[in-house]
Amino acid sequence: MTRTPLRVIPLGGLGEIGRNMMLLEYGDDIIAIDVGLMFPEEEMLGVDLVIPDFTYLRDHPGKLRAVFLTHGHEDHVGALPYFLREFNAPIYSTRLTDGLVRVKLNEHRLLATAETNVVEPGELIQAGVFEVEFFTVAHSIPDACGLIIRTPLGLVVHTGDFKLDHTPVMDQHTDLIRLGQVGAEGCLLLLADSTYAEIDGYTPSEQLVGESIRNILVNTSGRVIIATFASLISRVQQIIDGAAFTGRKVFVTGRSMIDNVAMARQLGYLTAPEGLIVGVEEMRNTPPSKLVVITTGSQGEPTSALTRMANGDHRYITISRGDTVVLSATPIPGNEQAVFRNVDNLFRLGADVLYNRISNIHVRGHASREELKIIQGLLQPEYFVPIHGEYRHLVVHARLAESVGVPVGNAFVMTDGDVLEIDDEAAQLADRIPASYVYVDGLGIGDVDQHILRDRAHLSTDGVVVVIVAVDKQTGRLTRPAEVLSRGFVDVEEGSDILERAKQVVSRALEGAAHYAEFGDINGRIKDSLSKFLYDETRRRPMVLTVTVEV
Amino acid sequence: MTRTPLRVIPLGGLGEIGRNMMLLEYGDDIIAIDVGLMFPEEEMLGVDLVIPDFTYLRDHPGKLRAVFLTHGHEDHVGALPYFLREFNAPIYSTRLTDGLVRVKLNEHRLLATAETNVVEPGELIQAGVFEVEFFTVAHSIPDACGLIIRTPLGLVVHTGDFKLDHTPVMDQHTDLIRLGQVGAEGCLLLLADSTYAEIDGYTPSEQLVGESIRNILVNTSGRVIIATFASLISRVQQIIDGAAFTGRKVFVTGRSMIDNVAMARQLGYLTAPEGLIVGVEEMRNTPPSKLVVITTGSQGEPTSALTRMANGDHRYITISRGDTVVLSATPIPGNEQAVFRNVDNLFRLGADVLYNRISNIHVRGHASREELKIIQGLLQPEYFVPIHGEYRHLVVHARLAESVGVPVGNAFVMTDGDVLEIDDEAAQLADRIPASYVYVDGLGIGDVDQHILRDRAHLSTDGVVVVIVAVDKQTGRLTRPAEVLSRGFVDVEEGSDILERAKQVVSRALEGAAHYAEFGDINGRIKDSLSKFLYDETRRRPMVLTVTVEV
Is B443 on the interface with A (CB under 8 A)? Predict the structure, then answer.
């Protein structure tokens, strides 16, 4: 009988636990599932990316046996370039995921040193005590997989991001049969996607979108421009199929869309009749009624092709009356304002715009509640950990699991850094490891902290006022009037009066200053009086910085 | 035959045209409909409020005859305190709206000079050439009204914010009969609420929510805490009714909820059995199963009562296992993150949380598409202007109107500041008036401009670096090493190396400086070299401020 526990540790995800990374540990062996990144939340001012905290792996060198990637989305693979600067372990993924990762590692000049491996679903990979098998799942990118992990204590299933889709576009079903086999053998622990654990019923099939797109292409007499995620290859295939069906040519624009289409065609994930996809010249010579444009920008990204079109400054495409723009995507929370600004601008330019609120032109890539119940029913796990969701999603998913058979008390709602220990008798949250947000800002990784973010928030609210005083080294008195400058506080022209009076406030603040007053004291006095004066005058609290120059 | 046109001018609303204010002008007479405010969008850093641009009224003194307020929500009455500092015209509204406005004006010490008038629906008010009649509409606040405005050119109908609700809680129906009469007489122009012009079908009745709340109170054994809008008096009444039905006491918390409940009870808009609403002491002595708490904070407002509960620092209410928290509201776009942070935190504290995605505990206050068609059918207006929506809502609403009978070309999608001129032959967008966003920041009204916001955005992204150099007045050379300080850029401890090297960069930049170099040139040199150095080192672009002190 073993007393070594299996340790399950979610990391990263900005509160969506385990979305970006998950560790499984047993004795001296650790495997990692996904190494993704998240885009910063609103209050993470100036931060470019957020990556998981690798401290635990850093503190336990030599234990990491392998990295397994469930699919090629940024929130599951995007932190690899940062990870591989420090760690070297074999990386396993299916073919398209591997293709996407290799493109990324090449950009970061890490391809030569990284060990990437393409695996097939069903293949077994040994990593320390763990034996890992990929199984296919339906999701919004081809080659998405979940993992079946054989551990000394039993079978663990990690769904990755998934939904059930009985009529998927690229024939990638969630492998229910394999899951049934695992259920028959006995599933110790299920880790399952909670993204849509709030949504009743079923997520509709991708086929629905294909039909909508074809209807639009049939019934629209002008040019049709369709924006979607560059990684949503199946959607691109549906658009190509619809174009072929209606005798339209396809023009592809937007850097990541162009790259992904090229890569997917090369790897055979995307097929198009000869001559269907055209370049700029042929696009220009094609009548609008015979044209479909596939573009990036469905999330309102500021420099994306669709945003350029909406702003009237795309290089090749000028929107005008008669155009129909289709947003084949749902705004990711946080992007709504940017997305709808594009919609408004496209309407203003005279286009007809079809978007999620008024058309069936997108379905989501995650399982809804009835699908989650089916997975529970197939696996009947002894323990359950909801993953890939914010705290409330995890809570409702845990309740769902308990309502369909997981023993009460055996569903664990975890937070990043929590350690669930399972041994052959029980499971419990037994430990915590470091799991901060690691901010990437420019070249800096992890150097931007709460202190810097607080300063940025302060600066963003009411700007900055800088005061420079020159004091006589001997007498400690001002040798000239203080200099005051500001940015983001008041209009420099209109506010010149208040800045003038601010100088007098500074002078008065120093009137009683002793000869040998310490600089800290001078700076403190200036700051206090000036902050108070500015607040009384404006009800604003700019950041006040004071510099004393001794002359 | 008159050639004087009727001029229709929407103002304010942050792109939701006419939401905050609407002007009607005929010859020498202007009337204003609503004087509301909007809360700033994300990129309006540090801005407290946004109010409509009053320039046109300022430029045409003596023309404003009256202000008509459709209902008491902030986005329709909130800018009155700013408006009344400059303009004096009689204000007309129904009783509850007047009560809310008077509370607000009293706070701003404007009550003595303002002329507010309570009107009844059906009453006629003459204002210059305009004759105005209020008619009741169903909306999420009692006493909401639309306006029927008799003009020299015909009848204009302004719906205000409305929906149809055939079983409203406080018996406030949208007055379909009166609208039918107007339709029979002939409606020249309809201005109608577009907020939910994207939503198919009907908005459900408030009654549905009443039933849900009662079910929750019946089926929950612990304490129930319900958060909703303080102005949603009918919802508060439903909670009180449910509490009475289930033998629970009611405790009210949150400043604006306490104030509104008191005001609504005083004016007779809210009724509660004697002794049902209790104070702190009695609340503490009431078992959880016999208690309902009504609170503010449904939008995740940082200092609201519910947010304090979620953060564990509310003065009277400590959330624990057994509590059920009900968010009886939908997050307004932009508030989602704050709302769901509260939900997550409440779950963490052990509460059960019911919110819009998983329960029927809120219905919206605006008409959906089928309701909008009914209004069109009753009025059959000659001209139509969709209002109270973003551009896309206006476009789809205009199309809806044309699809049910408004002559094609007679539906005008306007933007704030556009002037629609209607004479006895035709209508056209004929003019534009000033219609900027006017930002209120602290005591400043309109002084924060794009330039200041750009600086705040810059500061918020990468912080600020301040360089102070002292140069010899005679030689133009540095008299000492430059001083460099930063905020929001790099960690001051960890980044001390880069700030040290920055000083050397400054010194080198000035090496070739001529004796009589102008300060602008010195500052320019420093700024250029330092910005480049910092970007090369960090890939960040802090705002660089330089100050040269001559000694």
Answer: yes
pTM score of the predicted model: 0.90
Do A189 and A250 lie in one domain? The reply is no
Contacts across the A-B interface (CB distance below 8 Å): 194
Instruction: Note if B108 is an active site residue.
Output: no
B362: annotated active-site residue:
no
Alpha helices, H only, B189-334: 206-219, 233-246, 255-266, 280-284, 305-310
Q: Which of A308, A331, A354 is the last residue of a domain?
A: A354
> Hey, are the CB atoms on B444 and A490 less than 8 Å from each other?
yes
Report the CATH number that the domain containing residue B471 is assigned in CATH: 3.10.20.580
The reply to whether B450 touches chain A by the CB within 8 Å rule is no
CA A295 to the chain's CA centroid: 20
Could you list the pLDDT tens digit for every one of the 551 residues in chain A?
458 999 999 997 677 888 999 999 999 999 999 999 998 888 899 999 999 999 999 999 999 999 999 999 999 999 999 999 999 999 999 999 999 999 889 989 999 999 999 999 999 999 999 999 999 999 999 999 999 999 999 999 999 999 999 998 887 899 999 999 999 999 999 999 999 999 999 999 988 899 999 999 999 999 999 999 998 999 999 999 999 999 999 999 999 999 999 989 999 999 999 999 999 999 999 999 999 999 999 999 999 999 999 999 999 999 999 999 999 998 887 788 899 999 999 999 999 999 987 788 888 899 999 999 999 999 999 999 999 999 999 999 999 999 999 999 999 999 999 999 999 999 999 999 999 889 999 999 988 999 999 999 999 999 999 999 888 877 777 788 888 999 999 987 777 789 999 999 988 887 765 555 566 678 888 899 999 999 999 999 999 999 888 87
Mind telling me the catalytic residues of A? 193, 366
- Beta-bridged to residue B460, according to DSSP, are none
- Evaluate whether residue B408 is within a structural domain: yes
We report the CATH number of the domain holding residue B107 as 3.60.15.10
Q: B215 and B350: one domain?
A: yes
Kindly state whether residues A64 and A158 are assigned to the same domain: yes
The ipTM (two decimal places) reads 0.87
Same domain for B143 and B284: no
Domain count, chain A: 3
Same-domain status, A29 and A172: yes
A228 and A268 both lie in a single domain: yes
DSSP character string of B429-481 = EEEE-----EEEETTEES---HHHHHHHHHHHHH-EEEEEEEE-TTT--BSSP
Q: Specify the residue for token string 């109608």.
A: B192
- Residue B458 covered by a domain: no
Phi, psi of A402 (to 5 degrees): -65, -30
CA distance B440 to chain A (A): 11
Indicate which CATH number applies to the domain containing A329: 3.40.50.10710
Length of chain A: 551
- Domain span including residue A503: 463-550
Q: Is residue A504 situated within a structural domain?
A: yes
DSSP A138: B
Within this chain, do residues B296 and B399 fall inside the same structural domain, yes or no?
Answer: no
Alpha helices in B272-390 (DSSP H): 280-284, 305-310, 336-348, 369-379
> Are A427 and A534 members of one domain?
no
Distance CA A256, CA B418 (A): 39
